[in-house]
Amino acid sequence: xxxxxxxxxxxxxxxxLGTLYDALARxxxxxxxxxxxxxxxxxxxxxxxxxxxxxxxxxGAVVALGGCVEVGADGLPFAPFSTALRTLRRELPGExxxxxxxxxxxxxxxxxxxxxxxxxxxxxxxxxxLFELTARLLERVAAEHTVVLALEDLHWAxxxxxxxxxxxxxxxxxxxxxxxxxxRSDDIHRRHPLRPLLxxxxxxxxxxxLELARFTRDEVGRQVAGILAHEPxxxxxxxxxxxxxGNAFFVEExxxxxxxxxxxxxxxxxxxxxxxxxxxxxxxxxxxxRIVAExxxxxxxxxxxxxxxxxxxxxxxxxxAAVNASIxxxxxxxxxxxxxxxxxxxxxSDDLLPGERSRLNRRYAEALETDxxxxxxxxxxxxxxxxxxxxxxxxxxxxxVLEASVEARRRHAYSEQLRLLERAMELWDSAPEAVRATLRxxxxxxxxPPCGCDPATTALRHLDLLAEAAVAGRLCGERERALKxxxxxxxxxxxxxxxxxxxxxxxxxxxxxxxxxRGDGWQEIATAQELVRGLPPSEVHAEVLATAAHxxxxxxxGPETLTAAERAVEYARMVGADExxxxxxxxxxxxxxxxxQIEAGLAHMYEVRDEVVARGLAVVLGRSHVNLPSxxxxxGRSEEAVTILREGxxxxxxxxxxxxxxxVLGNLAESLISLGRWDEAAEAAVSAxxxxxxxxxxxxxxxxxxxxxxxRGQVSEAARHLAEARASxxxxxxxxxxxLPISCLTVAVAAxxxxxxxxxxxxxxxLTSGFPLGTQRxxxxxLLEAATAEADARALPAARDGREQVLDTVFSAVKRLTTHAxxxxxxxxxxxxxxxxxxxxxxxxxxxxVVTAFEPLARPYDLARVRYRLAESxxxxxxxxxxxxxxxxxxxxxxxxxHLGARPLEDAAAALARRxxxxxxxxxxxxxxxxxxxxxLGLTTRERDVLRLVAAGHTNRRIAEELFISxxxxxxxxxxxxxxxxxSGRGEAAALAHRLGLFPAxxxxxxxxx
Length: 1010
Prior knowledge:
three-stranded antiparallel β-sheet; elongated; mainly alpha; 4% strand; five-stranded parallel β-sheet
C-alpha cells in the first residue's frame, strides 16, 4: 500500500483560498493587492501558497516565488526579490526588459543579470531610489499581465528585504499585481526584527491579513486519509489529532510514523519524532542531511558534493534515500536541495555538536574559496563570510566579512552592511596582526577620505570601520547606532593629532543630530570648521565649508556665508571633489541671488542643473530641481519655476527620487498658487504630503493647503493644516523658510478668527529674531498680513490700544527689507498702502501705484486683491467720475476671485458693489440676446482686438505695434482680459478664445507667444 508523506488532497482553507482568489480577481482589474499569511511552523502556509499559485497559473497569471534565505543566522540581502525577479525575467523577458529600460544599472543591485550596478557616492536617497524603481518596475511588468509575487518565510528576512516589502505595500498604485508574504507567527518574539514591520502593515488599510489556524479533528481525518490512501480508524485519528494538536506537518509525520510501526512517535517529543525519521536513513544519507542543515536554506548540488566528499554515485544514492523519505526535496530551481520542511532542518541542525558545526562551516568555506562558481555570484560574498564566521576562524572571517559588507553596500543593503561591519569590529582584535596589515581601506571603505595617506599602501584601521559603519547606519535609518559609533570614534581621536579625520566625524555627527531632531547641528559644524581652519585644501576641508555654507544659507545667510560658499567651490575644484563642488555652486548661486546678483547667481544654478542632468548625478540633480525653482519663485519668476519643477518631477520619478519628488511637489504647489492655478496647487500639495518622509515636503504641502483653505474662506481647515505644518517642522531646528511662513499663516488665521491680540503676539515673536539677509520672500507676506490685519480692525475700539506700536514696528521692518526684485518692490508698495489704510489715510494714488506694480506680474490673486482695494479707495475718496473705473476694477477682482474660489474676496467685492450701487455684470441692451460670446464676457472693443492678437500668439510689443499703443498699455489690456475671462495665463486665454469661436480663422494670424 502506498503511503505519502504529503497528502494529495488539499484539506480545508476554503475561506483563505476564497480571499486569495478575490485578491487575484481584483488585481486582474488593475487594483494591486497585498496579503500577509501567518501561522505557526508546520500549519500549512507553504501548501496554501502552492495551491493558490497553481490556481493563479491556470487563470493565466505569472507566479514569481521568492523565499527568504537563511545562511547560519544571517539573511541574504534582497534574496526573495532577486529570486522572484529572475522568475519574471524568465517568464516575461520582453516585458521586464522594457520596464527596466534606462534603469538597468540601478536595478542590477537586485538583479545582477541586468548589468553592472552604478558606482558612485552613496546618499540617504540611494535605498529609497532603488525601492521606487523596483515598485515602478513591478507596476510596468504587471500592466498587461497579472503577476503574483509570493515571498515566503519573512521571519528570516534581512532588514533590506523588510524595508523593500514595506515600501511596495505602501506605494503600489497601479498594475495587475498580487504581493503575498508568509511568516511564522510563533517565531515572532517581542524583540524579533519583523515585529515593527508587522505593526506598520497593521496600520495600513491596503493589506489583508490571513491567520492560519490548526486543523479541526475532521480536517485531520481527511488529511490522514489522503496520506494513507484509505480511511483511518477513528481511534488512530483521535490519537494523531491529540498528539499533533491539528498542526498539518506533525499530522503528516505522525501518520507516516504510525503506519510504519514507529510507535515511539506517539509518546516521545515531536522533535525526537523528526530526528527518528532522519535516523532511519542510511548513514551516508544522514551525513548528507547534516551537511545540508548547516549549509543554509538551500544548498547547490555542486557545493554539496564538494563538502560531502563522497563518490558521486554514493552521494546520489544518499540524496535519493533522503528525498524518498521526504526529508530533503529538490530546490525549486532544480539546482540544489533543501529540507522539505524547515522544522526538520532545525531539528537536525540543533542536534549537531559544536565541533561538528564549526567543521562543516569550515568545509563549506574552503569549498567556496576553492571554486567561487559553486554558488550564485550575488550570494557568494555573504555566504562565504557567514561560513568563515561560524567556523570561528577570525583570520579568514575578517576579510570575508569586510568583502560581504562591500557587496551589501553596492546593493544599497545598508542594514546588512552595518551588521557586517559590526561583526568585523567584533572580529578585529581576534584576527592576527599579520592579517590586519594586509587589509586596505581602498578595498573595503569608500566614505572615509584618505586624509593625507595613501589608501593603497596604508593598512585598514579600526577607525576606518567606525567611519564606514557610521555612514551605513545613517543611510539605513539606524541613526541612534550611527550616533553611538561617531561618539566612539571621536573618543579614539582625542588621543591622536588627526584634525581632518576628526572634522569628518563631526560633520557626520551634525547630520545625525539634525535627523534625530536633537538640535540644529551647528555646534558640530563649527567644531569641524575650527579643526580645518588653516589646513591646506582637501576633500574634507571642502565638505566642511560646503556643509557650513548650506547650513547658513538656510538659517543665517549673510556675507560670511557667501564667502564660505565661494571657498567651498574653490577647494572642491582644487581637489577634484565634483559632487561637493556642484552642491557648493548651487548654494553659492542661491546666496548670490539673495544678495541681489540675480542673473549671475541664476547662471550658476542653471549651469549646475545642466551638468548634473547630463552626468546623471542623482543627489545634486534632485537638489538642483528643488533649489533653482525655489530661488526663481523667490524673485517672482513663477512660470519659469513651474517649467523646471515639471521637468524635475519627470526626472525624479524616472530616477526613483521619491523624497526629492516630495520637495519638488511642495515647491510646485507654491508656484502654482502664485500663478492662480489653485486646483493644480492643491493636488501638488496633497502629493507632497503623501510622498514627503521628512519635515520639509510635508510641512510645505501643509502650508500651501492652509493658504488655499484660508483664501477660500475655510478658516478651521486652514488652522488644521497650519497645525500639521507646525508639528512637522518641530522646534529643534528653526529655519526662516519654515518659521516665517508659519508665522504669516498664524497671523492670518488669528485675524480671520478675530483674535487680533494673538496676531500681534505672533508678529512680535517673529520680529524678535529679525529678518536675515535673503529672507525677504518670507518676510514681505508676513508684514503684509500684519498690516492688513491692523487695517481691517481699524474700526474696532478694542484694537486701538497697541496699534500705533505695531504699525511703527512694521514700518521699521519695511525700511530694512530689500526690494531688488519687482515682486518685492510691489509688495513693499502694498504693505505701505495697507499701513496707510490702517492709519486712516488711504489714497487712490497709493493703491494705483500698487496695482501698476502688480499688473506685469503673473499673480492674479494678488492683483485681484489690490484692485479691490483701489476700487474701495476710489469709491471712498474719489469723485463721481471715478465710479466707472471702480466698477471695472471690482468686476475684474470679482471675476478672478470667483474663478479661484476665493470666497472672502468674491463676497467682499460683491458687497462693496452693492453698497456703491454698482453693477458687476455689464448691463445689456433690451432686445434679443446677442450671440457674440465676447459681449457676454464683458470685453470692450479694444480688448477684443487685443485678445485676437493674444490668440494669434503675439507678444505685448507686437500687439502695441499692431494697434498703435504702448507696450505698457497692451500689458494692462492683457491683464484685464485675463481677469474677465477668469484664466491665469495667455495660453489659457487663447485656448478659450478658440474654443468659443470668438474670431474667424482668417482673423487669427500665427505668431509667437509672449
